[in-house]
Amino acid sequence: MFEDLKRRLLSGEISFTQALPEALPQLRGKITDDNLLWLSSELQGYADALTFYQSPNHGLPAYRAVPGALYLMRQDGSFEPLNHPYAARDRFFLSAPIHWLEEFSNLQGEDSLVELQEFGAFVAKMGGGVVCSCPKSELKRIIATFRNEFIKLLDQVDAAAKQG
Predict the structure, then answer these.
(1) What does the pLDDT look like over 112-147, one tens digit per residue?
(2) Tell me, what DSSP letter sits at residue 135?
(3) DSSP string across 47-97
(4) By residue range, what is the domain housing residue 71?
(5) Are 125 and 145 in contact (CB under 8 A)?
């Protein structure tokens, strides 16, 4: 059922931006609501990402936490360290849609800047947005982990369909 989708994803013919919208309608009723929500969050971004900073029991995927630093990006494109208690942490949750991470991982350089939209309310009055600077290898790790978990889920659905 999902063999062609898996093949195209693994070969690089399609990205998650294409694979997830194709798979989600076919998965409805075949996987748990929690898994549907997880896939939807990977496609659209994690709307509840602030819970990562507010609770140790946040329920967000651990593979999305990365080492890095938070910066305030001003409207003129300049950066300055973010002066906020959350910025003192040693790991940050990348809430961006998986296709953003795919794009950012292919840009030049060793490090990547990923916007953390969930901080918008905190910094709107400062005139900018919040970005996380992290090693590009972390983005590739997130993508690989998600790809493996997604394919494992597709394999489980295919196995269940064959059994029953």
Answers:
(1) 999 998 887 766 666 778 999 999 999 999 999 999
(2) E
(3) TTTTHHHH-TT----GGGEEE-EEEEEETTS-EEE--SGGGGSSEEE--S-
(4) 3-163
(5) no
